[in-house]
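#structure-requests
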Amino acid sequence: MTSHTTTLAAQTGTLAVDGGNLFTILKESLYEESDIVFRELVANAADAIAKRRAAGADIAGTVVVGIDPEAGTITVEDDGIGMDRDEVDRYINQIALSGTQQFVAENQGEAVTIGHFGVGFYSAFMLADTVEIHSRPASGAPAVRWTGKADMTWRIDAGERAATGTAVVLRAGPASPYLADPQRVVAALEKFFPFPHVTILVRGPGLEAVVGDASPVWRRPAELVADEEMRAFYRAHFDEPADPVGWVRVESVDLGLRGVVFYRDTAGGAEAIDGRASVLSRGVRIEAPAGMIPKFVGLQHLVLECDRLPLVVSRAQVRSGSGDDDVPALVSECLSQELAIALHDLFTGDRARYEAQWDELAPFVKYGVLTDRVFASVMTRKVLFTTLTGQRVTVGEYLDRVTERFTGTVFYTSDPIGQAPYVSAFRSAGVPALVLDHVIDSAMMQRLELVTKDIVFMRLDADVARVLATGSQVESQAESQADDRAAAARVVALFEEVAQRRLPQATVTALRLLAPELSVLLTVDEVQRRMDELRQMNSLVTGRLGDGPAAPRTLLVNLASPLVGGLAAADPARAALVAEHLVDLALLGQDELTSDDLLAFLARSEDLLAGHLRAPALAPAPASASAEQE
C-alpha cells in the first residue's frame, strides 16, 4: 500500500485584524441602539473630570452636549484632565487600550471612573462617519486634534483648543434624528444618567436642559434630608401614588455601596408583587446582575449605587466574579445584613411603629426568613402574628401566654371566617390562638417548628377535645343514672349510623365541651392534614393525583349541647334528620360538602324551616327596659 502522508512545516505569526470590518462589529454587535453613543461619550467625559479632580484640581465638573443642526454636529465637551498627543495616539489609535485602566492602576484603585476598556469611544461612529477630538491636557502640553473616519483612517495634528479638557465632535450630517429633534438627546441621557456625578447640560436651538439629579437623597447625609424629601423622591422615581411605609439607607465604604431600600405600601394601590430596582455604577444606570439583589429584597423598591461593580465592555451589565472579587455576591450579603439590622433595631427600639407597619412588612420579612440565611439568623424570632383578639405577638411571646396545659403548642386558624365556630369556641374558653391566613404562613410554620425547640403548630380544628373537653370518655361524663348513660349511647349510635354513610373513615367521639353552642365538630389530625395538603399541591404541579391515606378525622359530638341532648328523647325519624343536618354543618365548616350533599342540605334546610312555621307560635319577646320606660 502506498502512503500519501505529507509533512507540513511549522509556522508562527500574529493574528490579523481586518480593519474594514472592525467598526462594523462594534456598531452592529457590541452596541444595539444608537442612544448608547451618548452613554459612552458622556461616561468618558465624566471619567476625565474624575481624573482631574483626583489630581487635585478644583473644577466645576461639567459635561456639555451641544446640538448644532446647521453645522450638522453633535459635540460632547468636558472640563476634565484632557490628553496630549502621545495619549491620543496611545488610547485612541490603539483600540481597547484603556487610559482608565492605567490611571486606576497608578492610583491604586482610588479613582472614581466608569470605563475600563477603551472601546466605548468608537461607538461614536454609529452616528457619524467622521469624528474629531479636540483636547488640551492639564499638564500644560500643547493642544491636539484627532480626526478619524469610519474606514479606520486617522490624522493627528496641532490643536487650537484653549481650555483644559476635551471636545468630541460627531459630524452626524443633516439626516441625523438627533439633530432634527434634540429632545431625543435629552431623553437618552436621562435614561442612562438619572443621577450623574457631574453636571450634564444639553444645549441646542432654543434648548438648554440639565440632565438628572446630581445630588439625590442617598448621596446626602441623612440628617440633611427631610422625610418629605424621601417620600417625594419615592413617589416621583417609582411613579407610586402612595408614600412608602418606611425606608432603610444602606452603605458600605469597602464596596463603594450606598442607596435606599423603600418599604412599599402595597395596600395603597401597588398591584405588582415584585418591586423595582435602579442600579447605578458611578451615576450610570446599569442592569442588575442575577443574584446581586436578594429575592426577598426584590419585593421592595430600591436604588443602589456601587462603585466597585466590574462592568462588561458595553457598560450595560456586570461581569461575574468569584471569591473576594465577586462584588455582586458581597453586595447581596451586605443588603441582607443592613435590612436585618434596621428591622431588628426597629423591633427593639420602636415596637409600636414596627407593629403599625407589620401588615405591609409581613410578607417581605417572612419571605426573607425563608430564603435568606443572613436575614433569617436575625429576624426569625421577630416575625409577628396576629392573635384572635387582634394583638401582635411573636411565637415566643405567644408561648409565654399559654397555660402549662398547652406548653409547646401554638394554636392557629388558617381561615377565621370558614373556621368561625372553632374561633368562637377558643375565644369562649380563653385560649389564645394565632391567625395564619397568608399563603406564605404554611412554610413559615414549618420553619419555626424547625428552628424553635419543642413546639408544634396545631390548627383549631385539630385538637378541640384537649382544649374544650371537661372530661375524656362518654361513661365518665354522663350522669351516674343508667338512663342518662343509655341516652348518651343512643346519641352516639345515631351519629355513628350517619358517619358510616357520610364519613366512613371517621371515628365518632362524644364529649362534654365547654362551649354548649357547638353541637357537632369535625376534627382532623394536624400531621396527616398537612401531608394531604402537600400531596394536593404536588398533584397540581405534576398533574398526577397524590397517593396516601386520607387524614384521620373525628366526628366530635358535644353532649353539653342542648340540641344534641334533645336527640335521645326525640322522635327517631326527626332525630335522624337533625343528626344528618348537624353532620352537614360540620362538613360545611370544613368546606367538604359535595355538590349532591349541598343540594340535599339546602332542601333539608327548607323542610326544617317549613316545619318551624307549622310549629306553635312562639311567645313574644319581652320588651326591653328602655322600651318600657318610653
